[in-house]
Design a protein that fits this description.
mainly alpha, 161 residues
C-alpha cells in the first residue's frame, strides 16, 4: 500500500482484495496464465495490470526496476535488507573471530545450498509482507466497524432527544 501511494499519489481502492486473489492463486494469478508468457514476468504483469486496478500497477513498477548495483542496493536499503553500520564493521583479528564464531567457517560455495537459503529467506520475507497486508486489512475493517458503531450511537442519541 505504501508503494502504491508513493508511486501513484492516490489511495489504493482494492489492492488488498487483488493481493488476496494473488495469494489464493485465483485466475489470472495462476501458474497456467503465467506460463502463457513463457515465464516472462514483466510481460505477464503488463497483461495483468489491465485487469487489475492497483496490484498490477505496483508489480509493473517493481519488475520495471533496472537491476544494477546502485538500484538494487537502494531497493534493499529501503526494504531493510542491508546490514547496519555496526554489523558492517569487521574486526579481522583472530581473537575477534574466536569470540564471535565458535564454529569453523564453512565454504558455502555449493550453489544448491546458497539457492535454498535465498529461496528460504525470500519466502520468509514474502510471508512477512503478506502478514503485514493482512494486518492493514484487519485494521481498516476495525476502523470501518468502529465508525459504523459510532454513527449508530449518534443516531440513537439524536432520535431520543
Amino acid at each position: 500500500m505504501y508503494y502504491y501511494r508513493a508511486w501513484s499519489g492516490k489511495e489504493p481502492k482494492c489492492i488488498l482484495c487483488e493481493f488476496d486473489d494473488f495469494w489464493l492463486v485465483k485466475y489470472p494469478f495462476d501458474l497456467e496464465s503465467y506460463r502463457q508468457f513463457d515465464n516472462d514476468i514483466w510481460r505477464y504483469w503488463c497483461y495483468i495490470s489491465v485487469s487489475t486496478n492497483d496490484l498490477g500497477f505496483v508489480a509493473c513498477r517493481i519488475f520495471g526496476i533496472c537491476v544494477n548495483a546502485a538500484s538494487v542496493e537502494r531497493l534493499w536499503s529501503c526494504m531493510g535488507f542491508l546490514q547496519t553500520n555496526r554489523q558492517n564493521v569487521r574486526d579481522n583479528s583472530p581473537a575477534a573471530n574466536l569470540k564471535t564464531n565458535s564454529e569453523p567457517i564453512e565454504d558455502d560455495s555449493d550453489d544448491e545450498i546458497t539457492e535454498s537459503r535465498l529461496e528460504n529467506d525470500f519466502s520468509e520475507y514474502l510471508q512477512g509482507w503478506a502478514e503485514m497486508l493482512e494486518e492493514e486489512k484487519n485494521a481498516e475493517l476495525d476502523e470501518e466497524t468502529e465508525e459504523q458503531s459510532n454513527t449508530q450511537i449518534d443516531d440513537v442519541t439524536v432520535n431520543t432527544l
